[in-house]
Amino acid sequence: MPQIQIQEPVKTNGVRERHGAAIAELERKYPTRRSLLLPVLWLIQEEDGWISAETMEEAAEICECTTAEVMEVVSFYQMYNRAPVGKYVLGICGTLPCALCAADGLYEYLKEKLGIGWNETTADGLFTIQRRECLGACSEAPVMLVNQETETRLTRAKVDGILEECRQGKRKPYFTGRNNKQ
Amino acid sequence: MTPLNVPPPPDNVTVTVNGAPMQLPKGKNLLQALLDVGHYIPHYCYHPRLSVAGNCRLCLIELEGRPKPEIACNMVVADGLKIRTDSELVDSCRKGMMEFLLINHPLDCPICDRGGECMLQRYSVEYGWGTARTIDPRRRFHKPQFDPLIDIERNRCIMCTRCVRFCDEIAGEHVMGVFGHGNRNYIGTYGNGPVSNPFSGNVIDICPVGCLTSKPFRFKARVWELRQTNTTTRTCNGAVTAWTRAGKLYRVTPPTRRRHGAYTIDEDTDEFISNEARFGTHYANHDDRLTTPMIAAGDGAQMTTSWKSALEAAARALRNAGRGEACFLAGERSTNEEFYLLGRLARGLCRAGHIDWRMRFTSEAAARAAGDALRASDGDLDLLARGAYGATLMIHADLLGTAPDIALRIKEAARAGKTRLALLDARVDEFFGRFADPVYLEQPEALATAVNNLAAALEHGRDEAHAPADGAPLFNHLAQHEQGLIVLGLDAAGGALNPALVPAALRLVQALGAGWQFLAVTAARNARGAVAAGAQSDRLPTGPVTDPEALRSTSELYGAPLEAPEETPAAPELLRRAAAGQFKVLFLHRCDELVHHPQRELIEQALAATETVIAVDIFPSWITRHADIVLPGSLFYENDGTMTDIDGTLQRMSRGDRPRGDAQEEWRILESIAVLMSAARRHKSAQSIFGDLLKAWNAPTLFRLDDLLLDPPSLLPQTNHVLLSRRTRPNFKLILAERGAQPPAQAAPAAGGGLRLLWNMHSQGPDHLGSRSSEFDALHPQPRLELNPADAAALGLADGDWVRLAGGEVYLPVIQLERAIGPLPDEALYQEEAVETPA
Amino acid sequence: MLVDLFKGFAVTFKHIFRPRVTLEYPEVKRPLPPYFRGRHRLQRYENGLERCVGCALCAAVCPSEAIYLEAAENDPANPVSAGERYARVYQIHQLRCIWCGFCEEACPEDAIVMGPDFELANYRRDQFICDKQAMLDPPDKGFGKEPNLKVNTAL
Predict the structure, then answer these.
(1) What phi-psi label fits residue B75: left (phi over 0), alpha (psi between -120 and 50 degrees) or beta?
(2) Which one of B328, B353, B569, B732 is most buried, by most CB atoms within 10 A?
(3) How confident is the model at residue C66 (pLDDT cuts 50, 70, 90)?
(4) What is the DSSP string of B221-257?
(5) What is the pLDDT of residue B399?
C-alpha cells in the first residue's frame, strides 16, 4: 500500500469562511448557483473594497462557473474594483448631461484639491477618483457618487463640504474590512 | 438488424429571394439556408456549429414589411418571406459595418499570418472604403503571453466571440471570455492563461481575422505558398488537410473546401480537429527520418543498401521460412491497403504465416476481446449527430484521452440534445460529466459485473420492477429508449483491457434489442480497418477464417490458395512465441506501439530469438536498430491509401509530396516484396488495392452484431447482484503542480493509503511519433495525479500539492511516466500496488 | 556620281565633328535613367532596421518565381526589422528574374527597389542566387564577388 506524502494546503482568501452565512442566505433566494455571482462579488467588495484574483477564483468555485466568467462580470461592471481603493470613492459621472454641466470642471477641481487623477488613491488612503457611467440623475447634473450616495448639483462649496465630512469620518466608508493590499 | 429511424427531412417552404421564389427548409437558420443555396452573404460571427450571437451585423438583409434591415443569422426560414440581399440599402449597410469594424483594426496585413485567408481582407475588397475617415488614434492593447500554441493580437479582434462560444459550447468549458466594456472590450482567458482544452487549436481556424493565430506556424510561410493535401493522419480519426512546401509540413488544419474560387480553410468549417491531429503531427518535420533501406552488417551494425537488395533479402527470408515460421505484426496505424497486403503476404505467399495487429493489448484474452468488440461495432456517429439514438451509454471509455475527435462528436450530440448521455466508468472528467445523467462510478474490476447485471435485468424485462436495486436510474435510462448506442472503451486501462467487459457489453446490447447499436472505441487508429482488411489472426477480408466460403473468396482475391489455420493466436501470443524462438522471420510493419510497449523485455527476446527481423518504419528506434532489414516508409501526406475511423467511416490518405530521401510508400514496399516472392498479380496503385478491398467487403455496412459468436459459459462471469454504486456527481480535480513548478523540499508523510493507482494513458503520450513533434511539451503536460475530492480532503491534499509515492525518492510526475511505459503484469487489469480512487 | 559621293562624305564629315556617343565601357559608364530596373536592393530605415517585414508579397507577385523568402519573428530586444516579422531568408535568383519590377510595386513597405546595378555576369550559376545580405549591402563592383551567396536547395 503506497504511502502518500504531502505539503501544507494552499491558503485561500477565505470568502466562504467570512461570508458563509450570507452566501447560504443567497442560495435560498436564487434558482441556480450561477446567479449568485453578482451578490457574492458585492459581499467581497463591501468588505475588502476590491476584488482580488484569489477572491475571484473562490467566487468561481462558489458559483460553479469558470474564472473567465467571473472575470467577464468583474471587468464589465465599472463598479467592481480590480485594484485597492481609498476609503471614499468619488465616482464622477462621465456621460453627456453631466459633461454639459461641467463634470470636467468637477474632476479638475478634485484633482487640484486631492492631487490625484483617474483611478488614483491619495497617499493617506482616503480618496479615489473614478469615472462612472450615467447615474440616472441627469436633471441634477453634475452628479457624483460618493461611495454609494448620490450627490447632485455640485458646486465647489458643496464638494469642499463633502470632502470635509469624509475627512472627519462622518460618512460611511466604502468597505468594512481590511483593505487587502497585495 | 432493423434500420434505425432517422428524423425525417424538414418541409420546404417558398421564400422569395431577390425576386426569385425558391424552396428552403422551414425552420432552418435563414443565413445558413441562403448560403447553402449559393447566395453570397458576408458574415463574421455566425458559425454553423455555434450558437447565434448576432454581433457582427454584417449579414444584414432587407426584409419586406420591416422598416429596418435585419440580420439573417438570427432569423429562421418561414413561409412567404420576401428578402433582398442585393439592394442598395444592403450594400450601404455592409459598407457602414465594415467601416465600423475597421475603425480600430491595425493596418498590419503584411505581417499578419491570416493574410490571404482573412475574411476582413476579403470583405474589405468588396465593401471597404479604401481610406480611413477617422482622425482619432487607434485603440491599442498590449500583447500578453497567452497560450503555448495560440498567439493573440487583440488589436485585430472584431469581437465576433466565435472563440468564446467555441470554448463554451464545443470544447467544454468557458475558458475564454469577453472582458471589459464598450470599446475597451477584449477577448482572453482568465489571467491570460492557456486555452486549456484539447481542441483549442480550432479557435485559430474559426477566428475570421488575425487575432488568434497559430504559434507553431507563426511567420513560417504565407498560406498561398503552401500545397494543400486533403488526407488523414495516422494518429487521429477524421480528415485533415496537410499544408506543405518542398516536403516540409507547415500546418495541419481541418479539411479545406473550395469557396469563392479558391481552396481555403472554410470560415464556416464544420469540422473540428483535436490538437493532437493539428499539432501532434509535426513529427513529420523531425530530422531523424529513416530515408534509405538498411540491412544488418554483422556485430549489430547496419549499413545502407539499395532498395533492390533490401527487398530481395526480405523476400528471400520470407520464402525460406518454413510452415508457420513467418510472423507479421501489423501496426495499428497502417492503412487498410497495407493491412490487406500484409494479410496476403502472410496467408497467401508464406506458408501458413501468422498475422495480427493487437499488440496494444498486453494479454491474449484482452486482445481477443478487443477483436470481438471491434467486429461487433456497428454504431454510426453520423446517426448520432442526426438524433437517431435516443440514449447513449459510455462504459469505461476514456474518450478524451484515447480518441478526442470521437469524444467531441459524442459530446456535441449530447449537448445539442440529440441523445441522452449516461456514464458508467471508473473515472469521469468534466468534459462529459456536465452533459451526462445518470453518471455511475464503479471500481474498474466491478464494471463487467455491473454491466452484466444490467443486461440480466433487461433480459427479464424492461419494466421498472426488474431494475437492479442500486442502478434504477441507469436501467430506466436504457429501458426507456428503443434506439440507442453503447460506447465501450477498449484501452482506458492502458492496454490491459478487462476481457470480461466486452461480452458483458455485447450482452447488454443484445438485451436492449435491435434498435440499439454498439461502438467500441480505441486509440488504435485503424483498428476497424485491421479487422476489416484481414490483418487479424481470425479474420479474412471476406469473413472469419473458419468460414470455407470466406476462405475461397479471399484466396481468389489474393490469387493464392489458402488453408484454414488450426489456431489463430493474437499478437500477445505471437510475441510470446517469437520470444520462444518459434519464428524464423518477424515482419514488423509500422509497429509504433511496440516502441514504448509495457512488455519491452518480451519484445527484446523476440527480436533476439528471431533469425530475420524485417521492420518498416519512418523513424529509428531500438526496434529498427535490432532489425536485420529496415525499410523506410512514408508520412501521412506522402502515402496513398484509406483509413477506417472508429465508427467505420473511410478516410482517404493521399500523397501530396514525395517521401523524403529514398523512402517509399508502404503499399509499394509490400507489393514489391509480394512480386519478388512469386509471380503474383501486381497492383500498380493504392486504388487498385482498395478495389480488391471493395470486392471483399460486399456490403454497405461492414460489421453486424450477429456476426459475433458469443461464448457465454466461458467468458461471462456468473453474478447474482448488481454492484452499481450511485455517487454524487463526480468532480475530479487536478492535484499536481503546474509545469515547471518545483516539488517541495520538505514533504511530511500523511496518513494516506487505501488508494490504488489507475493508469490513464494518453492516446499518443510519449509515443514513437507524437514525442517527435516539436509541440509535444505543450500538448502533453506533465503527468499528474487525479483524486476524488473526498479522498483529497481525507488526505488533507489540495490542488497543486506535490505527492510522492512511497518506495522511492521520485515525485509523482516522474513515477507515473516511468510506470506507464514500464512492465505491466500479464492478465492484470491494474497494478497491484498502484494508487488512486477510493478503496 | 561625284555629287553623290560628296553627299555621302558630307554625312561622314558631319559626324566627325559631332559629340561622341560610344563610351569606353568598362572605364566610362553610361548614365542611367532614374527608372532603370537593375539588380534589386533591400532598403533600411535610418536607424539601421530593415524595411522588409517578410510578407512575401514580392514572391507571390513574381511572374518567374525568382524570389524565395522565409520569415521569422523578431527578437524584441534585438530586432532586425521594424515590425514583428522579418525576412530570415531572402533570395532572388538573378537568372530567373525578368526585371519586370513587379516586386517593387507589390512591396507594402517600400523595402525592395530595383537598383542601378546591371553588371551581373558571373562564372558560376549558383552565384546568381543572391541572398539578403548582398542586397542590403551591395558590393561596389559587379555582383557575385561576395562569398556569402548560398544555394537554396528548396527552390
Answers:
(1) beta
(2) B328
(3) very high
(4) --GGGSEEEEEE-SSSSSEEEEEEETTEEEEEESPPE
(5) 83
Classify residue B93 as exposed, middle or buried by CB count within 10 Å of its CB (0-12, 13-18, 19+).
buried
Instruction: Establish if C89 belongs to a structural domain.
Output: yes
The pLDDT of residue A75 is above 60: yes
pLDDT digits (tens, 9 = 90+) for B496-537: 678 899 999 999 999 998 889 999 998 889 999 999 899 999
Q: Indicate whether B312 and B278 sit together in one domain.
A: no
Lowest mean pLDDT among A3-12, B652-661, B829-838, C40-49: B829-838
Please state the domain count of chain C: 1
CB contact under 8 A, C84 and B220: no
pTM for this model (two decimals): 0.84
**Per-residue pLDDT band at B128 (split at 50, 70, 90):** confident
Q: What is the spatial distance between Cα B398 and Cα B403, in angstroms, rounded to a whole number?
A: 8
Residue in B111, B224, B246 nearest the CB of C85: B111
Which is nearest to B621 in space by CA: B642, B595, B646, B650?
A: B595
Whether residue B511 sits in one domain with residue B383: yes
Can you give B730-768 as a three-state secondary structure string? CCCEECCCCCCCCCCCCCEECCCCCCCECCCCCCCCCCC
Q: Which chains touch A (3 or more CB pairs under 8 A)?
A: B
pLDDT for A3 beyond 70: no
What's the gap in Å between the CA of C72 and the closest CA on chain B? 5
Which of B151, B195, B156 minimizes the C-alpha distance to B177? B195
pLDDT tens digits, one per residue of B701-728: 333 322 222 222 222 222 222 222 222 2
In a domain, B6, yes or no: no
Q: What is the mean pLDDT of chain B?
A: 80
Distance of CA B379 to the CA centre of its chain: 16
Residue C17 covered by a domain: no
Question: What's the pLDDT tens digit per position in B227-239?
Answer: 888 888 998 888 8
- Sign, Cα dihedral of A6, A7, A10, A16: positive
Does the beta carbon of A168 lie under 8 angstroms from any beta carbon of chain B? no
Specify whether the CB–CB gap between B402 and B492 falls below 8 A.
Answer: yes
- CATH number assigned to the domain comprising residue C122: 3.30.70.3270
SS3 of residue B497 by DSSP:
coil
pLDDT digits (tens, 9 = 90+) for B419-466: 999 988 776 666 787 788 787 777 777 788 889 989 999 988 888 788
C108, B222: Cβ pair inside 8 Å?
no
Question: CB neighbours of B337 closer than 8 A, spacing ≥ 6?
Answer: B533, B640, B641, B642, B667, B686, B689, B690, B693
Q: Helical H runs in B381-486?
A: 381-385, 399-402, 404-415, 430-433, 447-460, 472-479
Q: State yes or no: chains A and C have 3 or more CB pairs below 8 A.
A: no
Query: Could you give the CA distance from residue B556 to residue C152 in angstroms, rounded to a whole number?
Result: 52
Domain co-membership, B643 together with B752: no
Query: Are the Cβ atoms of C54 and B221 closer than 8 angstroms?
Result: no
Domains, chain A, in order of start with CATH, read 15-76 (1.10.10.1590), 88-167 (3.40.30.10)
Q: Is residue C110 part of a domain?
A: yes
φ and ψ at B229, to 5 degrees? -120, 115
The answer to whether the Cβ–Cβ distance between B219 and C55 falls below 8 Å is: no
Q: What is the CA radius of gyration of chain A?
A: 19
Q: What number of helices (H) and strands (E) belong to chain C?
A: 4, 5
* Integer Rg of chain B from CA: 28
Which helix (H) or strand (E) segment is B306 a member of? none
Place of cell 509515443: B767
Total count of domains within chain B: 5
Question: For residue B754, is it within any domain?
Answer: yes
Q: Residue B197: which CATH number? A: 3.30.70.20
Chain B touches chain A, with at least 3 Cβ pairs below 8 Å, answer yes
Report the C-alpha gap between C55 and B114 in whole angstroms: 11
